[in-house]
Design goal:
Six copies of one chain form a homohexamer. Chain A is an alpha/beta fold. Chain A is about 40% helix and about 20% strand. Chain A has nine helices and 14 strands. The first copy, chain A, has helices spanning about 1-20, 40-55, 65-75, 90-115, 155-160, 185-195, 225-230, 240-250, 270-275; strands spanning about 25-30, 55-60, 80, 85, 120-125, 130-135, 145-150, 165-170, 170, 180, 200-205, 220-225, 255-260, 280-285. In chain A, helix 2 (about 40-55) links the parallel strand 1 and strand 2 (about 55-60). In chain A, helix 3 crosses helix 4 and helix 6 (about 185-195) packs parallel to helix 8 (about 240-250). The longest helix of chain A is centred in the middle third of the chain and has 25 residues, at about 90-115. The radius of gyration of chain A is 19 Å and the shape is globular. Chains D and E meet through helix 4, strand 5 and helix 5 of D and helix 4, strand 5 and helix 5 of E.
């Protein structure tokens, strides 16, 4: 009985957070290692279903890098990258779309539905969600796009009826050609368009480190100003760069808090949202 | 961190129950010792606020026996009881109403609001909620009423706008005279009228015992048939009688589950609703 | 038949007033002698029901001074006043609440329902209606509050579903402690918050007199400016002071007309609203 | 003041009737002498506006006999009647329509709007309100129709937005040819289709008389059975016949009360609806 | 089959126009010769029904000049005109109203309903649609009004429920006297009040000509500036003047496009709206 | 001009069909050769957008057979069929899903959006649209499912907000495993669940032939009874069998008309719906 009462107390501890986020939108970018372990994946979708049931509006944007490359190789294509961007010719674009929309997106949808949520998976094409322009670059990147407009109509429609939207980061340009988009940036733009309360990146690192020493303790709260400094010193670099840039942009456009958290921790999302003990790094204005 | 993850798991364990009761009405009769300790009172209202936030519609019906009697004595009136019913002359009725409506009801409302809920306290008079007839009895009981009709309009109005209704068990008859009603019976009738999912009695005993031995382990699940047997053997008697009768009536009119639980246990309501480990006694059809 | 036609003509004479006030809110402060005669009480609630049926939104705020004091004395407590304010210790506050909420409020609710309206009685605690701060005073007045914020949500909810709200003038502060509030001031603040069309005080005098001569003919229309003059000359004093101050404040915050009328006249409210012949004193900007 | 209070009492006397008819539909057939005196006309439209403001849904169906004939004569056409029905060739039909729709209907609309109501005048053509078949008859009556279907859509649309519908009794058949319809029968069919509470005929007689003696006192309440008897004895005859038949049909199809009242009495409608003293004859099942 | 495919292609060609005008209001002034041929009348109402079905909100304003005069003559009255305005005494006004409202309006309503639309015919009196003042003039014109205010409530009510409003151009002044209004001007004012997308005049000429030579090719697009010039040169004159003035006013108050088209061409409206090939003259800012 | 008027007449000819199908649901199964020519594909999506704009609710279900097989071969997998069903192991299922959801579905969505519609592409997993059981078969077919339940919630949500749903025929079973479903059968079940007005199969044949002679003229209307006869004679066989069975089932469950039409004809859908000249074969009860 003692133990049960302890459990009830834990529920009650969550109440102030439930109140605080009631009716609020949280955009979750989900990718990397957190998508590989099936236990972690399940932990994450359950967190999201929980958020939905206690009155939040979670929106998921997923990535898909490693699976795309491995599938390309199966088909005998060699992935090529320039400055971290996948060079995307027509054929590559087709493969990207098949893997993102026809595989990863549906796996997440399925996992949510299996655990009792109601997910609907869409891409940036559906309902004209994401409008892009071709990314300018010295070396032609092919069908790599930059988000120019988010049309939130389909998200509001799904959200208003209790569905959890799961979004594959693709978009179309003015010719209705399909483009590959950086998922971090897509998540940030969607958060801005929805005036989300929070933007959360589920990554496979412990957070942002203060130095190149990879055993350092992650920074718990980082201002935009300090983030810019760490970028200049190349301490923030690699795959962390687009995430930090996405956070900075979101903060500039009115999102209150952005988080880069460790998706390898079980229930990382719930911990971030329902406890005071932040995990990973929070970037604020 | 380990400990935090444990906490997240506890939240997640509640998810199947949150789903199950989403949008459902639960009528809670609240009285006795559970109303005396301020820690317990707070634990109960927090449980109720939690229920509201995760999508349930809790409705509270409260009693007030001991406080009424003590207040009567302060005023120099001597409480009189016949077969467990308070003999209620006009003057007594006034005092009952002042204490129930002007004191106990408002204390509960205040406690809920203090803890972040939105409560509205009403009596069975407001919005013509409870219509009664004078209780027939060999010895005249005065203004003691029997519920004849519940007009749920005010409850639906409050519920639909996010308020938690807190109800003092009084009613009016065809002459608009005010009557005292047994709170257990009022709770049962309200549950029936609202087609509630559950009817829960928060009491100050451990549950229904299988024998007169008061150290016996309470019965965890009791059928109506067995409840009737225990009544015949006088094992169910005293203050437990109206509660058991209220449960039986509710079950006959379609309520699925009724519970008599120990309000002295912290977070008894949450334990009952959000765990499989029932506490106290559940009476089923 | 002649007489019947006369009656029909009277109904028709009310039509321009019905049109004028259709959909408008009228806050009625009800107290004093008008609450003592049962014929007068019935006349007033019938007027209010009539107003509701012809499309107005009447809101009642009641006082309770004499009954509180007499009940305190029954309990052996001696009422104490400083500058017209009741010194309110914890015990007094409890008694005030019981009498206001558990007795006077419910009597009005009952009377309205008996006459065919649908009333719901609440206090300033319910739905967090009235938020107060402790009144500053040289001599500590105890739990005497000043209205700081009106949360109209519960009033709009009740009104929107055809209920007549009846309000006991209590409020809670930031610690959720209960405070006694001057009913005149509560009525004024509620009228302001609801952007009411009119604020009407039902009193037990004939109106505001132009001089100390108590047989003088009451002033029929008074400007704020002249009201201030009469205050300086102490011609407006005593129990009339808070009423006049409440009117002045309401006028400053946009209420168009305020009235101090003689509740001892049968159907005083209807006369005020449905005829051109004002009764008592109207205070205007 | 005494007199004012008397007036307030009259308003209050109307309250039980206001309650009783709140939200109910009353179909009023308006024709004959009551349409000739401008004082009477004004009295009637004011009654109707009053009904609308206190929550009823009055629907007006008007006739137009005398004006049609006089206008025909102006144009050099001689009105012809067979068994009380106007023989209606194409040219006559055009004149009927112009007078009913373009003159009488608009006069009523104008009178209502002038007195502060919001009327919209339509004919049975508008919104396909009245569908007819050609009336069978030994002698061809031309464009005289019998109501076969009422399409209440336009009435519900107008009513739902606070307009008072004023209806000219014309209809169209399956070829969309226009037909003249007996206004009494049109009123009855509309009342049935709207499940009206009451059907009232405003006539220019004192009611139904018990005998051929025209100074007899009118029958105050008549059953369908007795009405049939009076028809057999030819005591009910002439212009009264279609009214009584319309009442009988309405009663058979569920209308609770039908009335034949004297439109020459000022405020006859208000008297009928807001007093117990019925005027004219009420026909009941 | 070939031919069928051609037909399908025609439907598809209309799609961009359907999209463009989806949900938009188009006010159509309908009068003159286009009202005389029954084939043309049918072609026009079918165009309007088509517009309604594909999502537009067509509003019809009709005139009635020739029929009014011919009917007046039948009654032995001689029509009199001053500067193109009908001198309208009380008797004339009655005739105007009967013909416009009781004949022409209902013919259009009937034609629409016969062809499967849902029309409701009203005049400027109904629902207080058109408020006028007496037109100032050296020679007294009698009941000739100028539009001062359009109350769109009844139009929005009808439109919102799928009805097509058909409007006879009459109005009432502050004394509720009825006035004759120029139909062109009424159409323009209604378009302005409804913020219509387009205002279309269906006339019996080919458009606005560039010179007095009546075989000249009509101007296809005319600016307000050039229209003013043509007016000065008296090239725009006669019955075209009020139409052009109505267009200019509408353009000044925000209507995007106004059209004067040849109603003698079958399906002139559809051609104007659903093809790029404008017919007649379009006047733009 | 003549030609334009001809065009207007064609629009008008469509009006009776627009009326007839206003607000009705039409399920279109789209597959085979009609999906290969880009001109045909565009013609079909334009037809569907047209249907949406004139008030119908088109729902698209697509197949994908040939592309799946060709993609499998690219990956070095050999497609295997038993009785026309694709033997679907886990790996094949993944490929089916990627091609159907990530390629074909998104191509259709893109084509609709490019042409001005608002499409949203989903699979039977999204919003738990299609629930299946494993198909029973002597030879294990792997993940081949039979539709057991359609949950129309997501379709109604999309439809209600103006989106055109495009559905990939996959479903999940009670373990949330993904199954391949016959697209013809999926279309039929969705039509039944939505109580669709019509079910249309766009194929690459001219219709159902009366004999094995492939130059025979297709049957224009076929009853279920005759369809069963043709099946017995093996005249209906091969890929036509599941289509005919899907039609028969739909007819049994209340769909009024089913069509097997030649998708190789430009605007085949419009021709079928907006002309009397049916194309292909219509199967009726």
């Amino acid at each position: 009985m003692e133990k049960l009462i302890e459990k009830a107390k834990v529920l009650i501890e969550a109440l102030p957070y439930i109140k605080k986020f009631y009716g609020k939108t949280v955009v979750v970018k989900y990718g990397g290692k957190a998508m590989e372990s099936s236990a972690l994946k399940e932990s994450i979708v359950i967190d999201i279903i929980f958020m939905k049931y206690v009155g939040m509006n979670p929106i998921i944007v997923h990535g898909g890098g490693p699976e795309i490359s491995s599938f390309m190789e199966k088909l005998g294509n060699k992935p090529k990258f320039v400055n971290g961007f996948r060079v995307t010719d027509k054929n590559t674009m087709n493969i990207v779309e098949m893997v993102l929309v026809g595989k990863i997106n549906k796996e997440i949808v399925n996992l949510i539905n299996k655990n009792g949520g109601k997910a609907v998976g869409i891409s940036g094409k559906d309902g004209n969600l994401i409008f892009v322009e071709k990314k300018k670059s010295k070396i032609d990147l092919g069908f790599v796009g930059e988000v120019k407009k988010i049309n939130t109509e389909i998200l509001n429609t799904l959200d208003g009826k209790g569905f959890i939207p799961v979004i594959a980061p693709l978009g179309t340009d003015k010719n209705n050609d399909t483009y590959n988009i950086n998922a971090d940036s897509a998540a940030s733009e969607i958060a801005i368009a929805l005036k989300a309360e929070k933007l959360v990146f589920l990554t496979d690192v412990r957070g942002i480190l203060p130095s190149k020493n990879k055993f350092a303790i992650p920074i718990s709260t980082l201002t935009v100003k300090d983030a810019v400094k760490l970028k200049k010193k190349n301490i923030i670099d690699g795959g962390m760069l687009p995430k930090v840039d996405a956070c900075i942009k979101a903060l500039q456009y009115g999102i209150k808090k952005t988080h880069i958290i460790d998706g390898r921790i079980m229930h990382a999302l719930l911990l971030e949202i329902f406890t005071d003990k932040g995990i990973g790094t929070e970037i604020v204005k």
